[in-house]
Structure formats: structure tokens, C-alpha cells
Design the sequence.
């Protein structure tokens, strides 16, 4: 048995930790989306067992994600819970099509700074949001609101014995996880998060502390496959915009997350097209069950890696635990204090913030460090998807700016024509610099403009240079002589005047 499954022990223990992390996320995302909590658990089960078994990313864990909460809430408000299954089903089929068409591999071209910024931004939002959960308080909806409201939340907590007790359980959970790394090796075979939750549960029960616990009723009553009336909604053009948004955002979040998770471990890399197919298969099944849409979840995935998972067995087992406890033993979940689970998430969020990478990037590549920070701030201020898009846009602009490096040299011997040499890549980004130098040349002197050193001359620059040459020649001086490199019919580079 050990030879067939050499990492079974590590994967088993990691699955317990991921299960404990997944429970509050599944329930919390469902409630925030305006649907029964059990629908979030169903999505978590499908993400673990079904998507977990499929090839793609070995350690990434899928389930309901906060990034789709607003979209789901709006869809449920407009079309109803009964139609949610149809939306998720069709979105899943679109993901399957994109995966089979090979679109997923394009997500590999993601800047490292954007990925690190995504981790940092998500970590900050998680920490801020779970502090409210640890204190038993309602968190603001936006990431910026969560952070801005923390001082007031602490003031409210200090005025309430119940909130202070709840915070103490959360803080104690974090302390146990941190101090667990200093325990003897034999003790550390049990994950610190698991030990912390067990201790928090025992303390809560022993002293009958007034803290909130997980509340789940059961799964059978909420499974509602979409009916004919729900499929009839597909005739409405409005619903297709929602479906496409679900498919694109869920795919982007999953594959961005895969890039981030790959940076957290040294195991097999993600096969992006296969991961897209796996996500599509999971969402298709979630739609048939009338559940929430699924994406890969960075919190669960990072917890999976941190807990020592080696293979996909950990994520499959976490789905089994969700099914077992939520369907057959909901009373067991009711024993777990929510502030303890919040403590696990705060610790996981803290580990997502790349402190060392930010420092190293700032010393060596300040531009990359700026992209990281802007991506993180954008995720906090807006949301994950748009924050990552802002980071990617900045990365593209930075690359374009660096790729458009051009060298301009003016040689004036005092007599005869002024010689101007341009080398590098002349693009519209460098056009102001080029034109300032050319327009500063004396109007009464002939000019020889040598462009043979250019590797690339875009349309904007070519047009601007032609217009400048025409203006300069119109003053009565000799026409500007332009030398440039052209391609001969046989493909060779030749210099032509």
C-alpha cells in the first residue's frame, strides 16, 4: 500500500487542513451570494472529487470563490436561484470548448510581478475580512471597506465581551499554528492548523464559550437540477452576457491562480488547457445540480501546498470529507468555532504576502516592484479579476516602453550637413523624444537622417519623420537626405537612400 501511494500520509493530513479551510469559504461565499449555504458545499464537493480527479493542476483546489460573489448575487437577483444552474451549466460548457480549442495555454504568459501582486492583494483582503469573522462582526463588502473599517471594528470588539472572546479564539488559533513549527518533529507530523482547530474546539466546548460555530443543515433538500422553465430563460439576450461573464472570469481566476500555485511548489507544472477542461467539467456538473459556479481558489490551494500535499489525492480527499460531514454528519461541523477557522485563513493570507520578493524586486527592478504593488492595491480597491487586468496592462506598457528603446545621435562638424543617427526601436512611445531633438536642429542647415540602425520603425514615427522632413526642406535648405534599411526581394537587408 505504501509503495503504491508513497505520499498517502502527507496527502491525507493535508486534505484535513484543506477541508477545514474550505468549510467557511463554501458557506460564506454561498451566503454572500444570496443562496443557501448548502449550495456552496455542493460546489466544494464537486471541485474536490470531480475536478480534483481530472488532469491539469496537481495541487490546485477548486470550489466556490469570493471573486464571483457579486456576479452570482446579481444573477440570482435578476433571474432567480432556479436559473442559476442553467447559467453555470452553459458557462461550464463554454469552458470545455475553450479548453479543447487550446485557449488555456495563453494564460501562461503572465508576469511574475502580476502573480506576486495577486497573491499579495488576495492575502490582504483575506486577512482584513477574516478579522471581522474572528470577532463575530459583519464585514464590509469591498476589500477597501474591509481595511478602512478595521479601526472601528476593533473599537466595537473591545466594547463587547462576546466579541473579545471570539477574537481570543481566533488569535489563539493563529498562535498555535505559528508556534507549532517550533515543536518536536514527531509532534509536527500533525498539521498545525488541524491541531489549532482541535484545541479551539475543545476549549470552546469545555468552557462553553459564547462563540459562533458552523451551521449546516444538509444537502439533499437543496439539490435542484434546472427545469424546462429555467432553460427557457436562454431565449433572453440578457442572460447570455451573464453566462459569458461567468465563463471568462471563472477561467481567468482559475488559470491566474494556477500560475500563482505553481510558484508555491516544485511539483508538476499546470497543463493549462487540461485545467480549463477540468474547470469546465466541474462547472457543468455544478450547473446540473443547481449549485454555485466554481473556480480554483488560491486560499485552499496555498493551504494545500503549505500542509505538505504531494499529489491530487489531497484535494480529492478534501471533497470526500466535505461530502461525509456535510451530508451525513452536519452535527460534527457545528462543533467547530468559526473564529478558529477565521484564524486559519488569516494565517494563510499572511503567508500569501511576498515580503521578501517585494524587497528583492525593489532593489533590482523598481518597475516590476511597482507593478506588484499596483496589482495588489487594485485587487484590494476593486476586485481580483479587474486588479489582475490592471497589473497585466501595466506589465504590457512597461514591456513596450523598454522594447522601444531608441538611441539618437547628432553629429555637427560646424560645416556641411548635420548628421543624425537613429538606432534601436522607434515607436510612438519614444516619438516625443525624437521630435524634440529633430525640431531643435537649425532650420538653415541641411540634414542627413540615417535610419539604417533602426530595428523597427512604427507607422506613427515614420509619418512624423516624413512630416518633419517636409517642413525642414520647405525652408529653402537642401531636402533632408534619409538613409534607411530596406529588405531586398531575396530577404537580405540593404541600405537605401
Sequence:
Amino acid at each position: 500500500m505504501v509503495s503504491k501511494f508513497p505520499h498517502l500520509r502527507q496527502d491525507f493530513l493535508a486534505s484535513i487542513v484543506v477541508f477545514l479551510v474550505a468549510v467557511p469559504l463554501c458557506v460564506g461565499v454561498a451566503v454572500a451570494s444570496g443562496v443557501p449555504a448548502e449550495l456552496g458545499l455542493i460546489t466544494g464537493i464537486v471541485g474536490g472529487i470531480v475536478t480534483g480527479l481530472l488532469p491539469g493542476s496537481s495541487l490546485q483546489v477548486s470550489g466556490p470563490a469570493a471573486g464571483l460573489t457579486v456576479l452570482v448575487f446579481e444573477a440570482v437577483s435578476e433571474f432567480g436561484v432556479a436559473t442559476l444552474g442553467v447559467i453555470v451549466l452553459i458557462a461550464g460548457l463554454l469552458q470545455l470548448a475553450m479548453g479543447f480549442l487550446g485557449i488555456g495555454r495563453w494564460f501562461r504568459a503572465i508576469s511574475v510581478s502580476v502573480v506576486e501582486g495577486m497573491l499579495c492583494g488576495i492575502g490582504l483582503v483575506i486577512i482584513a475580512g477574516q478579522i471581522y469573522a474572528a470577532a463575530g462582526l459583519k464585514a464590509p463588502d469591498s476589500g477597501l471597506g474591509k481595511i478602512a473599517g478595521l479601526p472601528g471594528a476593533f473599537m466595537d470588539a473591545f466594547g463587547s465581551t462576546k466579541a473579545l472572546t471570539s477574537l481570543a479564539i481566533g488569535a489563539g488559533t493563529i498562535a498555535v499554528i505559528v508556534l507549532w513549527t517550533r515543536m518536536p518533529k514527531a509532534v509536527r507530523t500533525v498539521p498545525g492548523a488541524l491541531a489549532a482547530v482541535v484545541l479551539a474546539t475543545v476549549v470552546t466546548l469545555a468552557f462553553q464559550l459564547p462563540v459562533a460555530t458552523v451551521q449546516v443543515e444538509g444537502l439533499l433538500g437543496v439539490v435542484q437540477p434546472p427545469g424546462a422553465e429555467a432553460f427557457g430563460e436562454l431565449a433572453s439576450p440578457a442572460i447570455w452576457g451573464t453566462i459569458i461573464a461567468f465563463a471568462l472570469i471563472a477561467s481567468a481566476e482559475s488559470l491566474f491562480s494556477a500560475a500563482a500555485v505553481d510558484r508555491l511548489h516544485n511539483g508538476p507544472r499546470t497543463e493549462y488547457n487540461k485545467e480549463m477542461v477540468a474547470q469546465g467539467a466541474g462547472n457543468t456538473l455544478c450547473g446540473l445540480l443547481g449549485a454555485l459556479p466554481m473556480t480554483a481558489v488560491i486560499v485552499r490551494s496555498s493551504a494545500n501546498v503549505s500542509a505538505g500535499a504531494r499529489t491530487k489525492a489531497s484535494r480529492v480527499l478534501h471533497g470526500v470529507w466535505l461530502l461525509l460531514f456535510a451530508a451525513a454528519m452536519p452535527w460534527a461541523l457545528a462543533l467547530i468555532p468559526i473564529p478558529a477557522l477565521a484564524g486559519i485563513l488569516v494565517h494563510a493570507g499572511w503567508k500569501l504576502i511576498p515580503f521578501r520578493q517585494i524587497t528583492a524586486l525593489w532593489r533590482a527592478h523598481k518597475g516590476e516592484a511597482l507593478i506588484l504593488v499596483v496589482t495588489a492595491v487594485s485587487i484590494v480597491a476593486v476586485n481580483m479579476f479587474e486588479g489582475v487586468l490592471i497589473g497585466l496592462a501595466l506589465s504590457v506598457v512597461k514591456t513596450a516602453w523598454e522594447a522601444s528603446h531608441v538611441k539618437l545621435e547628432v553629429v555637427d562638424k560646424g560645416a556641411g550637413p548635420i548628421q543624425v543617427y537613429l538606432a534601436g526601436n522607434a515607436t510612438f512611445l519614444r516619438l516625443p523624444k525624437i521630435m524634440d531633438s529633430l525640431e531643435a536642429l537649425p532650420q538653415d542647415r541641411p540634414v542627413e537622417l540615417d535610419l539604417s540602425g533602426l530595428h523597427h520603425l512604427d507607422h506613427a514615427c515614420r509619418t512624423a519623420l516624413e512630416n518633419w522632413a517636409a517642413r525642414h526642406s520647405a525652408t529653402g535648405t537642401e531636402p533632408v537626405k534619409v538613409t534607411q534599411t530596406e529588405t531586398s526581394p531575396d530577404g537580405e537587408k540593404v541600405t537605401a537612400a
About this structure: The CA atoms of residues 162 and 177 lie 23 Å apart. Residues 487-496 have pLDDT under 50 and may be disordered. The beta strands are 62-63, 295-296, 406-411, 418-426, 447-457, 481-487, 493-496.
